């Protein structure tokens, strides 16, 4: 005996039979329960053993819990109990040593952290942190006096034209700074007018 269609309740013959959602349907009766669009095995969505199209498939709605006095009391009680358990566990674990397995990954991470800490430490303290600066004053003693370098300044009495690459030309009245004596006959220094540095005859200049 042929079964009945779940939609029209008429007899379903094998040639038009569609078995879906634990029911037997005519292919033409397998439609969306909401809009009546004809469906097939590829585009239907079942809900409570009834076919729906994608647009009218019932959406699951969240259940709203009433904010009653009893619910608020239970929530507060649960929160207080959680805090008590946390405090109890905290005091039990306080001062206990937690062992960490010495696996290769853990050791590598510890090594990287150690290297990063060393780099940050030395960057903050600067290059002079490792050794004491010898110029710093010892506690209870005054710092050593700083030696001021005397700047030698000479003025040219005569003109002189340089005759070698390491010499410098001077003119009468030129001011020469950073003068140093080379020997009894020659000095070297920088001519302020030209900015050049070189040797010149010692008997062509005099101290300022």
Automatic annotation (TrEMBL):
GO terms for cellular component: cytoplasm; focal adhesion. Residues 123-146 are annotated as: Disordered. Pfam families: LIM, SH3_1. Residues 123-135 have a biased composition (Basic and acidic residues). It comes from the Eukaryota. CDD domains: LIM_LASP (cd09447), SH3_Nebulin_family_C (cd11789). Residues 3-63 form the LIM zinc-binding domain. GO terms for molecular function: actin filament binding; metal ion binding. The keyword Zinc applies. This is LIM and SH3 domain protein Lasp-like. It comes from Actinia tenebrosa (Australian red waratah sea anemone). The gene is LOC116306704.
């Amino acid at each position: 005996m042929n079964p009945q269609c779940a939609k029209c309740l008429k007899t379903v013959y094998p040639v038009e039979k569609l078995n879906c959602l634990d029911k037997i349907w005519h292919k033409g009766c397998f439609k969306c329960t909401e809009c009546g669009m004809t469906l097939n095995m590829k585009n239907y969505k079942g809900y409570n053993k009834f076919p729906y199209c994608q647009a009218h498939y019932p959406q699951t709605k969240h259940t709203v819990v009433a904010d009653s006095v009893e619910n608020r009391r239970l929530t507060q009680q649960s929160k207080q109990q959680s805090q008590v358990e946390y405090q109890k566990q905290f005091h039990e674990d306080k001062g206990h040593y937690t062992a960490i397995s010495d696996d290769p990954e853990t050791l590598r991470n510890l090594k990287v952290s150690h290297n990063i800490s060393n780099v940050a430490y030395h960057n903050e303290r600067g290059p002079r942190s490792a050794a004491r600066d010898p110029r710093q004053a010892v506690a209870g003693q005054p710092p050593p006096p700083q030696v001021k370098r005397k700047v030698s300044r000479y003025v040219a009495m005569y003109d002189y034209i340089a005759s070698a690459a390491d010499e410098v030309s001077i003119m009468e009245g030129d001011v020469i700074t950073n003068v140093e004596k080379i020997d009894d006959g020659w000095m070297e220094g920088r001519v302020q007018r030209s900015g050049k540095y070189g040797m010149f005859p010692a008997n062509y200049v005099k101290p300022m």
